[in-house]
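In the previous chapter we treated chains in isolation. Here, by contrast, the input contains two separate entities that must be folded as one system, with a combined length of 607 residues.
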Amino acid sequence: MTIVEAATFRIVGHSLRRQAMELVVQALIYLAALVAISLILLIFVFVGRQALPVLISPAVHEEVTLGELFLPQEYGTSEVPLRYVWQPVSVDPKYSLMPLFLGTLKVTLVAMLLATPLAILAAIYTTEFAPGWLRETIKPVVEMLAGIPSVVLGFFALIVLATWMQERFGFDYRLNAITAGVALALAVLPILYTVAEDALGAVPRSYRQAALALGASPWQTAWTVVLPSALPGVFAGVVLGFGRAIGETMIVLMASGNAAITSWEFAEPVRTLSATIAAELAEVVFGSPHYHVLFFIGLLLFAVTFVLNWTGARLVDRLRRRLAGVER
Amino acid sequence: MNSTTSTRDFPLLKVQVSDRASVAAPVTDPKVTVESLTVRYGRRVAVDAVTLPIYRNLITAIIGPSGCGKSSLLRALNRMNDTIAGVQTSGRVLLDGQDIYTPGCDVIALRRRVGMVFQQPNPFPKSIYDNVAFGLRINGLVHSKAELDERVERALRQAALWDEVKDRLDRSALQLSGGEQQRLCIARALAVEPEVLLMDEPASALDPISTAKIEELMFTLKQHYTIVIVTHNMQQAARVSDFTAFLLSGALVEFNPTPQLFTNPADPRTEAYITGRFG
């Protein structure tokens, strides 16, 4: 073999081995992605199968129909009409989901109304005003807040926050939608903050320079130029936080009082969809109508978060395209 | 080359010095006076004790090799250096006789009087209209929609952009070409009616046609504004400016009327630079 031949052989052999390695690694990555996706699909299929009888099974329909889940019923007396009642364990089981929807909505609303402005303002402060060392401190600390197990937050809300809030605001009930919402805000805040901070930090320096050079104050610059430019990212954070708030279970289970009351009063105990599943699934008779309804609730939660995330992503995309000038 | 011809007989640089340069006008009263201005980034000296007059309604060019401190000098004139951490400035910059570095000077009001156009076009991701209206709105300079419309139109006309964009004012500014974006940035700066316009290599990111448009624009603008332009392009400085300052390692080497600086420089280092021996 000549030297040239030997060199060619080595190069060819080498590149073949490299190509083989490349293929193996590619296959592994592909497999990992496949496993992750099929697991999610399988969970979805499982929940769907357990929820399906609510829609089609005559045995389940003897105890609860779809109408009962969503439409007003006549449970009370003519003097005290009760239209929506969740009382699945009773001689005459009542399965209205309205109190649970309302409870979820109230707690989530309180949490988002509190966490959104707080997180956005905090993010503006760290990116626009805080000196470097402070920014480097605040960000990891807030991100650490995201690492607190929600059971600890729930515990804190149950023992400390609820008492303090009741003394401060004079609530009739120690555990209520507002207290649970405040605790939930603590869980949502770090997500919102982190995403918003990243989005604000990614706004080009040249925008800030242009605004400042036009005589804008730093606050005007942040509010009229930086925040609007970062809006798609900030909005994505809000959507993410909303999804987390709706699905969050432990905090609301511990701090909301868990009474399935149908009212718009925020200072009353509430029960959320997620907390209902957590509280009741462990004790339900396997295969009973109640069991299937709980899975149906799970499916609804799944659907709500899915629709929310999807709409959110589309909105973010539209905002982004509008900013980039692709469409008006 | 004929050996009997001395180099002095030629313009040092093969450029046409602007015949529109208005140095003949009496220039006794500078709009801005820079007095022993020193700018430091930490321990590095970017601008070293520069003293320089900037005359009213004329174009002053600052030239010099990369890193000579010309941008730092420019940014000292509207205190944009303040936005960079670790910058220290000493010396005085007098705007109409008032030192802009005295404590208590209103930086925001200063930046309204001394506008700036940057090297890279940097329109906001807003509509064309909102870009021009930005300075007017945040400074509360207009009181009605009609007045705002009028001032936006005037600024766009001044920047020679009105005819190109008048039918798409509500479109995103990011859809414009680079040259249009830069003229939009000029319009945005002009809208608040500054007295001085600072331009930091305004054409370096643009094609020759856009560059020519910007230069043409500068001639018309100097009737109303005092312009300072930083450029690494000597031909450009020679074409547009009335006075030229040559900076080297942060220090001012020469400041003279542009025709004189380019045809008969007083300092050998200026001659070396403009004939392309370094830089």
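Chain A touches chain B at residues 132, 204, 206-217, 220, 224-225, 228-229, 322-326, 328 (CB under 8 Å). The longest helix of chain A spans residues 3-56. Compare these points with the single-chain example from earlier in the chapter.
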